[in-house]
Every structure is written in C-alpha cells, then in structure tokens.
Amino acid sequence: MSYDKELVAAKKAACLAARLCQKVQKDLLQSDVQTKSDKSPVTVADYGSQALVSFLLQKEFPTEQFSLVAEEDSGDLCKDGSQETLERITKLVNDTLASDGSYSVSPLSTEDILQAIDSGKSEGGSQGRHWVLDPIDGTKGFVRGDQYAIALALLDEGQLVLGVLACPNLPFTSISGGNPNAFNGEVGCLFFSEVGQGTYMQSLNGSSPLKVQVTAVENPEEASFFESYEAAHYMRYLTSLISEKLGIKAPPVRIDSQVKYGALSRGDGEIYLRFPRKGYREKIWDHAAGCIVVTEAGGLVTDAAGIPLDFSKGKYLDVDAGIIVTNQKLMPLLLKAVRESLNEKASSL
Ligand SMILES: Nc1ncnc2c1ncn2[C@@H]1O[C@H](COP(=O)(O)O)[C@@H](O)[C@H]1OP(=O)(O)O
Ligand SMILES: [Mg+2]
Ligand SMILES: [Mg+2]
Ligand SMILES: [Mg+2]
C-alpha cells in the first residue's frame, strides 16, 4: 500500500509548524512559557504547532475518520487568565496559514484552535489509522534556543508506515565531531520516510531530497554516541558505563529531542542511548517519527532487551529499561554492553 498522499500532507504540515516554531523561538519571551502539572514547560509554539498540524491533516483528508495521538491538550488554555495566550496562539496559526497562501480558509477562531488541539486526544491502538504527533519535541531545547523537532508519524494497523521529522536548528551538513548548537552554516532539516521506501532529507527551505543511510561503522572504538542534553532526563552513569564497556573513545554528543534520530539516520553518529530515570513512561510521540526515520535508513531501534518498539499499545511504549538505537553491525555488541551494564547496576544496588 502506498502512503504517498499522506506523506505529502505530513511534510507540508511539519514544515508549516516548523515555520511557526521558528518565529516564536526568535522572539521568545519568558511569559510565553507555561508549566504543565508534570512540570514540563509548554510554550505557545507547542500549542500552535499542534493546532496547525491537526487542522491541516483534517483539511487534507476531510472524508476519512480522523485520529490523532498528540502530546498537548487545551486544559490549561481554558483556565482563567489564559485568554491572551489563546489569542496569541490563534494569531500565530492564522499568520502561518496566510504566509503559506495555499490554504484559502477564513481565519480560525479561538474556538477552532481549541478544537484542533483537542482532536489530538486519541488513544491510538492496533486497529485503523492513527497520526502520532509531538508538536515540539524537546521543549527545553526550544526554550534554550537549541535543538528541537516537530515529529509526526502515521500508524496503520499498529505498524509505523510513515514519519516526518522537522529539525529547524539542525545544521544541514554533518554535525559529527562538532557542537550542533554552535554552527555558522545553513540550518533546518526535514527527514521523511515511508515504509519500504528509505529515508530522505531535504532542507526546510525546500532543496531536493537526498537519500540518507546510517553509517557502516563496525568497530565501537570508531563510533560516537548521542544522548539527551538534559541531565535530568536520563541515568548518565549508565550511559557512560555502556560506552566504556564498548570502548567508545569520542565524548557523548548531547542533543535535545528526536533530532538525535535524524542525525543518526544520516550517519552523524552511530549510537543513541536513552535510559530515563525510574518511573518515567515513554510516550509513542517521542519515538514514532524518529524510529521509522532510523529504521528506513538501515538502522535498528529496540528496547534494552533487543525487542523492537511496539507502537500499537496506546499512547505509552512499554519498554524494558531503555531504548537503544544503532546500525545493524554494532547492535549485537551494544546489546551485550547494555546487558552487562544493567546486570552490574542491579548487583550494586
Ligand atoms: N523526565 C523526563 N525524562 C525523560 N524524558 C522526558 C522527561 N520529561 C520530558 N521528557 C521528554 O523527553 C523528550 C526529550 O528528550 P531528550 O531528553 O532526548 O531531549 C521530550 O519528548 C520530552 O518531552 P517534550 O516533548 O515535552 O520536550
Ligand atoms: Mg512536553
Ligand atoms: Mg517529546
Ligand atoms: Mg513535546
């Protein structure tokens, strides 16, 4: 089955959402950042991006039953004192739609925006089609002025069938060996994949797509690895133990969000280690787009036990201990190092 039409729509939606986010990041004010009950930050851009993607997908596929599993909901925007924020979001979405010009729609109202955001309340599952969206993945990176991604994927009967990753601050050329946040050249990449068709990257400004591949590095001593920028998001002693066991020489490359999957898919590094702290439950929107982008580029994405991620169980991913990503050659060695490190950790407790 072809998902070409869905891919075109997903790319369009992610590009426009990226445009909206770039505008907000440029003139980001402290007052634009709200804090959700789980203490994670959320900005007008998170809401605006979700509203825009949701609205555009519904507009592109008006006759299909629409299901979207997305991170944000309008709860906090409906509280007293949020009217001004809601109006800002509405204006941002309308301005972005108008700047594109290909959608001749009358301006959306604040009600339309709330509705578009709340169309993302689906629970997903193993039947039918579900869009999966993280409107800004890496909000902390976004607020800092660093890396973030707009991550959109499609599940069909529980399988990932397409993924789009817009990375507005990722340099277009390789970041291997460098700091992605301190770069002078062109930034802004769009990764996209359709099942069985490979992964491609183009610039967010619309250059022609290039096919990308993970690296063929077999020797861990020549490999480099990615992990979160935010120390609070993972167990650093575990990732350093794993990399030590593998004999990795290069220091870790710390980047926010699913940009790590994009960078790995084009060969900027070989390994992504993600070991969140105890009690953290992974959500499907934090991995769906990244997972298909890496898999279609020839890589592997599994949990710490080597089992492929299952996106069909609702909005959570029930993974064993952590998520690991690498090329096919390095995976057996990586799994061994992960197993040994987890055993050492368990016996030291
Ligand atoms: N305590 C946490 N541990 C791990 N990941 C978290 C935590 N809190 C939020 N996240 C989510 O993890 C991702 C950030 O990943 P990374 O650490 O790789 O940059 C984001 O999806 C972020 O959500 P959000 O989409 O709200 O930014
Ligand atoms: Mg968040
Ligand atoms: Mg996220
Ligand atoms: Mg998010």
UniProtKB/TrEMBL annotation:
<dbReference type="GO" id="GO:0008441">
    <property type="term" value="F:3'(2'),5'-bisphosphate nucleotidase activity"/>
</dbReference>
<dbReference type="Pfam" id="PF00459">
    <property type="entry name" value="Inositol_P"/>
</dbReference>
<protein>
    <recommendedName>
        <fullName>3'(2'),5'-bisphosphate nucleotidase</fullName>
        <ecNumber>3.1.3.7</ecNumber>
    </recommendedName>
</protein>
<dbReference type="InterPro" id="IPR006239">
    <property type="entry name" value="DPNP"/>
</dbReference>
<keyword id="KW-0479">Metal-binding</keyword>
<dbReference type="GO" id="GO:0000103">
    <property type="term" value="P:sulfate assimilation"/>
</dbReference>
<feature type="binding site">
    <location>
        <position position="136"/>
    </location>
    <ligand>
        <name>Mg(2+)</name>
    </ligand>
</feature>
<comment type="pathway">
    <text>Signal transduction; phosphatidylinositol signaling pathway.</text>
</comment>
<feature type="binding site">
    <location>
        <position position="286"/>
    </location>
    <ligand>
        <name>Mg(2+)</name>
    </ligand>
</feature>
<feature type="binding site">
    <location>
        <position position="134"/>
    </location>
    <ligand>
        <name>Mg(2+)</name>
    </ligand>
</feature>
<dbReference type="InterPro" id="IPR051090">
    <property type="entry name" value="Inositol_monoP_superfamily"/>
</dbReference>
<dbReference type="GO" id="GO:0046872">
    <property type="term" value="F:metal ion binding"/>
</dbReference>
<keyword id="KW-0460">Magnesium</keyword>
<dbReference type="GO" id="GO:0004441">
    <property type="term" value="F:inositol-1,4-bisphosphate 1-phosphatase activity"/>
</dbReference>
<keyword id="KW-0378">Hydrolase</keyword>
<comment type="similarity">
    <text>Belongs to the inositol monophosphatase superfamily.</text>
</comment>
<keyword id="KW-0511">Multifunctional enzyme</keyword>
<dbReference type="InterPro" id="IPR000760">
    <property type="entry name" value="Inositol_monophosphatase-like"/>
</dbReference>
<dbReference type="InterPro" id="IPR020583">
    <property type="entry name" value="Inositol_monoP_metal-BS"/>
</dbReference>
<feature type="binding site">
    <location>
        <position position="137"/>
    </location>
    <ligand>
        <name>Mg(2+)</name>
    </ligand>
</feature>
<dbReference type="GO" id="GO:0043647">
    <property type="term" value="P:inositol phosphate metabolic process"/>
</dbReference>
<dbReference type="GO" id="GO:0046854">
    <property type="term" value="P:phosphatidylinositol phosphate biosynthetic process"/>
</dbReference>
<feature type="binding site">
    <location>
        <position position="71"/>
    </location>
    <ligand>
        <name>Mg(2+)</name>
    </ligand>
</feature>
<comment type="function">
    <text>Converts adenosine 3'-phosphate 5'-phosphosulfate (PAPS) to adenosine 5'-phosphosulfate (APS) and 3'(2')-phosphoadenosine 5'-phosphate (PAP) to AMP.</text>
</comment>
<dbReference type="InterPro" id="IPR020550">
    <property type="entry name" value="Inositol_monophosphatase_CS"/>
</dbReference>
